[in-house]
Specification:
- The protein is built from one helix and nine strands; from the N terminus they run H-E-E-E-E-E-E-E-E-E.
- The protein folds into two domains: 88 residues, Nuclear Transport Factor 2, Chain: A (Roll); 51 residues, no CATH class.
- The strands form two sheets. A five-stranded antiparallel beta sheet has the order 5-6-7-8-9, with no helix packed on it. A four-stranded antiparallel beta sheet has the order 1-2-3-4, with no helix packed on it.
- 3% of the residues lie in helices and 36% in strands.
- InterPro entries: Cu_amine_oxidase, Cu_amine_oxidase_C, Cu_amine_oxidase_C_sf, Cu_amine_oxidase_N-reg, Cu_amine_oxidase_N3.
- This is Amine oxidase.
Length: 183
């Protein structure tokens, strides 16, 4: 933990203290079949902004902080390895900061469906291919798919496969398997 906190006081710059150039974001922890509910646990990843507006380009690798949001306390801390900080040069993605060559200019694109779309909308109800489902939106949860059914060709009827699903709760473990990225 000593190394982690030393990052906040190293290399002070006159315009902004180093600790103000560190931003952290929390990411939900996946569920892998544990029988015990450990509460609302998140992993906190920190990034160093000095020289860039894109925090994801300069992660503070090797450091993992786990927080229980119900208790509002740190329940885990790992300072596993020191990884060199990526350079900030060339990480600004804003259009106003881009310099040529940017590659050839893109030509316009048009999607044409001469026979009409392959889906039907009836209010918030969508019918597409062998599927039908209700699509709703919530300010907090985002897109919500409910009453999803697929056509069962053997029974010649729609079979319900999802009552309600929140896109915000979708979890796909596609990251690196190191401690900092696997959750």
């Amino acid at each position: 933990m000593k190394f982690f906190f030393s990052l906040f006081w190293m290399d002070p710059l006159p315009d902004l203290p180093t600790y103000l150039k560190v931003v952290c974001g929390c990411f939900t922890v996946g569920w892998y079949g544990q029988s015990v509910n450990d509460g609302r646990i998140v992993k906190v990843m920190c990034y160093y902004l000095d020289g860039t507006v894109n925090p994801y380009m300069r992660p503070m690798e090797g450091i993992t902080v786990t927080v229980d949001l119900d208790k509002m306390e740190i329940v885990g801390f790992m300072d596993r390895i020191a990884v060199p900080m990526p350079k900030a040069n060339g990480t600004d993605y804003r259009g106003s900061q881009q310099t040529p060559p940017l590659g050839p200019g893109l030509k316009g694109i048009t999607a044409v469906q001469p026979d009409g779309p392959s889906f039907n909308l009836d209010g918030h109800f969508v019918r597409w291919a062998n599927w039908e489902f209700h699509l709703g939106f919530d300010v907090r949860a985002g897109p919500i798919t409910s009453l999803a059914s697929i056509l069962d060709l053997e029974q010649e009827t729609f079979r319900r496969v999802l009552h309600r699903g929140y896109m915000s709760e979708l979890f796909v473990p596609y990251m690196d398997l190191t401690e900092e990225w696997y959750y």
